[in-house]
TrEMBL record:
Transmembrane segments: none annotated. Keywords: NAD, Oxidoreductase. Belongs to the short-chain dehydrogenases/reductases (SDR) family. One of its GO terms (molecular function) is oxidoreductase activity. GO terms for biological process: bile acid metabolic process. NCBIfam families: PRK07231.1 (NF005559), PRK12826.1-2 (NF009466). Residues 8-187 form the Ketoreductase domain. InterPro entries: KR_dom (IPR057326), NAD(P)-bd_dom_sf (IPR036291), Sc_DH/Rdtase_CS (IPR020904), SDR_fam (IPR002347). It comes from the Bacteria. SMART domains: PKS_KR. PANTHER family: DEHYDROGENASES, SHORT CHAIN, ESTRADIOL 17-BETA-DEHYDROGENASE 8-RELATED. This is Oxidoreductase.
């Protein structure tokens, strides 16, 4: 199926690994020119893999918590390719889990800074570029934990829930200006993050997904591709749950 994103200019944050990497590769395969913004230098290897199969990609070192760095990412995308069409604000970290009464403010702020403020800054500077051409499609990264609670997970849940409602308000703000903003909420997905977990923990996670397994990064990427493509031209301000039924029970 032609997803109609050929020659679209797409910035993806946190695409050195996991869901972001799978998304960068899929969007490039569909013909988009991909700009990866990540703190990890290993994003260069993703760029090389994309180029090796005939795609176009660029790595710009970016820390999503640093306003100047995020502005530079979006401005570099526009300077390199003439405009910015797509943003996938994906960069995120897990939290150090624990009960609220033992929480360290530094730990809380670190998660909020990357998982929420990083998304907001990416939207701010991407939208500035998108307004110039009157077109844009943004997907912000939520999580199942934006919608349901989990024992000892507070900063991450709070950040992701805020991303969801930030996305709704941003979506209605720019709805008449050609910019669509949506959110995606994956279930547990087999990224390097989860590979480190003990088998027992993994089995407990699987048990919470009615579909009977965890997600694959490529499955999340397919849903992101749909939302940023013109196939989703009437969809804005929504949340797509890609979670094997986790939040349906
Ligand atoms: N894996 C899951 O089960 C799962 C489930 C739901 C939501 N998510 C969300 O999906 C997103 C990607 O997760 P993943 O599992 O692919 O993780 P990952 O660790 O494989 O990838 C995260 C990427 O973000 C980058 N990053 C971290 N801090 C950054 C910063 N300050 N600036 C720029 N880049 C930064 C990392 O270098 C890495 O490349 C995250 O927002 C995560 O919360 C993941």
């Amino acid at each position: 199926m032609d997803m109609m994103i050929e020659n679209k200019i797409a910035v993806i944050t946190g695409a050195a690994s996991g869901i972001g990497e799978a998304t960068a590769k899929l969007l490039a395969k569909e013909g988009a020119k991909v700009i990866i913004g990540d703190v990890a230098q290993s994003a260069e290897a993703v760029v090389e893999e994309i180029k090796a199969v005939g795609g176009e990609a660029l790595f710009v070192r970016c820390d999503v918590t640093d306003e100047k760095s995020v502005r530079n990412l979006m401005e570099t995308a526009t300077a390199s390719y003439g405009r910015l069409d797509i943003l996938v604000a994906n960069a995120g970290i897990p939290e150090k889990k624990g009960p609220v009464h033992e929480m360290q403010l530094d730990d809380w702020q670190k998660v909020l800074n990357i998982d929420l403020n990083g998304v907001v800054l990416a939207n701010k500077y991407a939208i500035q570029q998108m307004l110039k051409n009157g077109f844009g499609a943004i997907v912000n990264m939520g999580s199942i934990l934006a919608h349901v609670g989990q024992v000892n997970s507070t900063a991450y849940s709070a950040a992701k829930a805020a991303v969801v409602n930030f996305s709704r308000s941003a979506a209605v703000t720019y709805a008449t200006q050609g910019i669509r903003i949506n959110c995606i909420s994956p279930g547990y997905t087999e990224t390097p993050l989860l590979a480190k977990l003990p088998e027992e923990t993994k089995q407990a996670m699987i048990a919470n997904h009615p579909i009977g397994r965890l997600g694959k990064p490529e499955e999340i990427a397919e849903a992101i591709l749909f939302l940023v493509s013109d196939k989703a031209s009437f969809i804005t301000g929504t949340v797509l749950h890609v979670d094997g039924g986790y939040t349906a029970v």
